[in-house]
Amino acid sequence: MAPVYSDQDSKNLLLQVPRPVKTYHTEAYDRISPKHFDGKGKTVLVTAGATGIGYAIAYAFAEAGVSRIAIVQRSADVLQKAKSSLSKDFPKLEVITYQASIQDGARMKEIFSELSVDVVVLSATSTHSFKPDTPLSGDILHETTYKTNIIASYDLVDTYLKSPKSSADSTKTVINITSASAQLTIPGQIGYASSKAAFAKMMQHFSLEHSPETDGVRLFNLHPGAIYTPYASTEYGPDDFPWEDIKLPAHFSAWLGLSGREAEFLHGRFMWAQWDVDELLQLKEQMNNPMYLTIGLVL
């Protein structure tokens, strides 16, 4: 049975962060297992979907039976490895790979002109080192962090939302893989945290212009948790933190993307993959407050 923690448990420092639900999951659980969702006929595009959290998310959507997964990644080697692995485990799945950077706006437009996409997962990210002796400047922050995490991400979402739908009744979903650093002040993350906060806020603005009711668009900000990926290993060691199950944000993303109208009440909101889905569903009335579960000033 997957462990869950209460407020009294001190094993995880993230439990000290206020949250709207009692139950805090650290591993995937049956309620959001991809086996419960039907992805037949769906196309999912995952940026940085060949490694780490992005690959785990792509795999979860494949488990849910989506028809096609497109992966955007800069490295050809990891792209081919991811495609081979997915194709082996899911023979009926069509896997399309694009060797590209999301900073290449022209290429992103070409991709969305070629594909009719139902779900976009923004997993690509860039950052500076979090070590205290790292030299930083405005130019360094712009090049290492802001260009990808804010500007390129904005352009990609804007391009996707302006692209034609596959049919009049089809929907579009964007899942932004953000970070708890967007809401917390964590030493060493001055550029990374501010970039994540900025784009999470942009997603909130997009959610004012689009909605499930008006044009079939659903937009979510999702903190994946403390996941020990190869990317995280460049800054932290395996024993530095009580790391969490990579399947948890992957399965939560599948729930957001494929559960139909069930998750729509979280449109435009900021959430953690560790928060229990059924307890979140009990908070629907709270969403009448437009500021609830958003990035902003708390008074």
What can you tell me about this protein's structure?
The protein is 34% helix and 14% strand. It is α/β, with parallel strands linked by helices. The chain has one domain: NAD(P)-binding Rossmann-like Domain (Rossmann fold). Strands 5-4-3-6-7-8-9 form a 7-stranded parallel sheet, with helices on both faces. Strands 1-2 form a two-stranded antiparallel ribbon. Helix 3 runs parallel beside helix 4 and helix 4 runs parallel beside helix 5. The longest helix has 25 residues. It starts with a strand and ends in an 18-residue tail after the last helix.
Structural descriptors:
oxidoreductase activity, NAD(P)-bd_dom_sf, alpha/beta, globular, 299 residues, two-stranded antiparallel ribbon, disordered N terminus, Rossmann fold, SDR_fam, 9 strands
Task: Please outline the helices and strands.
Layout: E1 4-5, E2 24-25, E3 43-47, H1 52-63, E4 68-73, H2 76-89, E5 94-99, H3 105-114, E6 119-122, H4 138-162, E7 172-177, H5 190-209, H6 212-215, E8 217-223, H7 247-258, E9 270-272, H8 277-281
Parallel strand pairs: 3-4, 3-6, 4-5, 6-7, 7-8, 8-9
Antiparallel strand pairs: 1-2
Helix pairs in contact: 1-7, 3-4, 4-5
Major sheet: size, sense and barrel closure?
7 strands, parallel
End-to-end separation: 39 Å
User: What order do the strands of the largest sheet run in, or round the barrel if closed?
Assistant: 5-4-3-6-7-8-9
CATH topology: Rossmann fold
Q: Report the radius of gyration as a whole number of Å.
A: 18 Å
